[in-house]
Automatic annotation (TrEMBL):
SUPFAM superfamilies: Cytochrome P450 (SSF48264). PROSITE patterns: CYTOCHROME_P450. One of its GO terms (molecular function) is monooxygenase activity. This is Cytochrome P450. Pathway: Secondary metabolite biosynthesis. Heme binds at C432. The keyword Oxidoreductase applies. It comes from the Eukaryota. Keywords: Heme, Iron, Metal-binding, Monooxygenase, Oxidoreductase, Signal.
Amino acid sequence: QFRRAVHSVQNHPGYRTLLNTLGPVENFFPRIPGLTPGSFHMWQRKHKDFEQHGWDMITYVPCFGSRTNFYVADADAIREITTHRHRFPKPIEQYRLLTYFGGNIVASEGDVWKRYRRITAPAFSERNNRLVWDETRLVMQDLFDNVWGDQREIDVGHCVDITLPIALYVIGAAGFGRRISWKADEVVPLGHACTFKDALHTVSTNVFYRLVIPDWFLNLGLTQNLRDIKTSFDELQSYMMEMIRARRQAEKKEERYDLFSSLLDANAGEGEPSLADSELIGNLFIFLLAGHETTAHTLCYAFGLLAMHQDEQERLYQHITSVLRDGRLPEYEDYNSLSYCQAVLYETLRLFPPVHSIPKSVAEDTSITITNANGQRTTVPMPKGSSISIHTPGLHYNPRHWPDPHRFAPARFLGEWPRDAFVPFSAGPRACLGRRFSETESVAALATLVLRYRVAVRADPRFAGETCDERWARVFASRPGVSMTPLGVPLVFTRR
Ligand code: HEM
């Protein structure tokens, strides 16, 4: 069977291993050549394995355990795969856990996905983008005025301690239509066991556990943490049902542009509702899941990178002040002028793509032609039933597309740049629906923060003698998760 599998891909180079350790299982094994590529290998190895094998698409044929996988870091091949949705559909069996609250756009394919996309896409409108911007500004202002107050220097032990709440509060307001503040202690409403803020927070930070732990085990309530997780999921569902009922019964319809209101409006037209309540909640939950950590971690890496590169931070600051000449805070209208903010964001996403593997499957016997760095071409057969991983770190660190790929150089995103070689949000018809949501939020947060504060890595005498590379490795140490997770980015923010 193994020999047949190798033959079916014409022995195209790549991993030949004893076990199939694709998916979450691989995270339990270290790298053992011939046995398994090792945990977190897509991030650890980046473009190295492609370089070693001489092609930007390599195969993974395990001796035991099912199918062949193709790792792809070739920009043209990725464009072909993401464009042809029917030839390379999404393997939705891998997404089953995500249907916890109900069917949704991320965990579906075919006509069902088409229906979800048709109904949900209009919610990510220009008016929603403006709302995202305004709410991000409010959240940042609230942080500066009511949390950091008149402190000149703020020591943030791990930058996600501020970026996770920022992203949560923005999605609370612009996604769910409920404004949340940093300090205000909400009272638990009658009939609820926790506040909306706590439910949202616990759900979004523990989603992985809730999805993998079976109901019967969670119901045992063995630890406080497990009890909190269960309560928060139940409560979030109950809050969402309540919000649906309240909006349906409201006599006067308000003009609202948060995602939740837009989905409700789309559902309230003539005839049959287009989404069942479970699908409404399922899609909102997926927006929270897809948009919270990814954006929060990206902002964390961005502040870390600016702290490590003071020259780039100064360049960014000069750029922001040149756009906002009178020292005012940025408005949504400034978005396009804040091009260096977007360049910093894109360079962060290139260096730290939150999603490392975008899975696809091969629906029919087919092939893809690729060219390597020496200009040689080859056509690789892809048998029906194989799987594909679009390898974002491999692509983003591919020196054919990105000269000096390990260097933080935001300016590479000014002017022309290789768009097909940048896929943090995937590409084609199944590309991220929340891309503009996330970009708007990130640019607003970057611009407001860098305008008011200077950011530096916290000085620590324990690491006084470290080299630049050691410092980079320490500050940006990460682990796999729903999206790649920074382990500890210690920063100091100093008021300008
Ligand atoms: C830095 C931030 C983000 C990154 C890197 C990111 C990345 C991605 C990626 C790689 C996919 C494709 C996943 C797959 O094929 O399995 C995706 C899909 C999606 N994302 Fe995002 N995302 C981000 C933010 C957001 C936000 C803020 C939202 C919503 C508020 C969102 C909503 C979605 C949705 C609904 C899909 C499914 C689209 C479809 O299948 O038609 N994302 N995202």
